[in-house]
Amino acid sequence: MPEAPCRIEVLRPGAFSTLQDLGRRGFQHLGVSVSGAMDQAAHRLANAAVGNPPDMPTLEITLLGPVLRFSSRAVIACCGADLSPSVDGKPLPRDRAANVPAGATLRFGERRTGVRAYLAVRGGFVVPRVLGSVSTHVRSGLGGLGGRPLAAGDLLELAAPQGPAPRPRARAQRARQALLEALADPGPIRILLGSEWPQFTPASQSCWLEQAWRIGAQSDRMGYRLQGPALQRRVRADMLSETVTFGTVQVPPDGCPIVLMADRQSTGGYPRIAQVASVDLPRLAQCAPGSSLRFTLIDVDCAQRLLLERARLYADLFPEPSPRAT
Q: Which CATH class name applies to 189-315?
């Protein structure tokens, strides 16, 4: 008799749950968003915990988690935000692998910390790639399950059950601990000066660096709208659309900054006052609407050094080095 398909049934979808990987790269010149996991550190940690490679898709769970029933046994890990996960009423250990029996139900409850949790399953989700990626981009309807968030009644196909997750090496355990400590840092978000920094008035430059900013309610995977004093340019003039990336801070005519996030567009026509350092993008991705942010300035040499340190930690999590570090 052939073995029954391995599936997860979506009993309740949660607020916004999508399949994501490391992003749809190589198509920005065609206007295609990179997308991918908002918190790529938590995504990698979850995959490492169950013995998956870093580019295996995970389920990104936002604020209010889904209710999921497993048709077969599985090894899972949940990293990132603490959304009180439990399996059949028993708390699920966070940031490490756990066994789930066939027929078990995974639920999420109270949000304790963060915004986005990442669920990895050993062997991975069986999802077709679109333009080289599984990542869901809802605005264009690409990737995931028909380019949309989970819905009640969806069935997530899993690879055939595998053995237990491999025991992490000592080096991987040290890297995991170092990453968790770095991601828990409550300090300011580190930034570099943007290309159009000189266009802003001295008062606005000082305000940007000294002011506490609040993440507005109209914030999502495309961008975080920041609330605070309106930033002013020395001269108001139109500019040609220029390159933007994850963490680019644009200032539209109303003077309210927008930090571009994973589902950002490929170019932008607003002046760029700053760029969030890549190592702090995972921390920023876990900040909820209504929370307060402060920024601190670093230079390019410091940002590159931090990025290389993060890349070494990512490489230590997996048997093979990972080429992408954000």
A: mainly beta
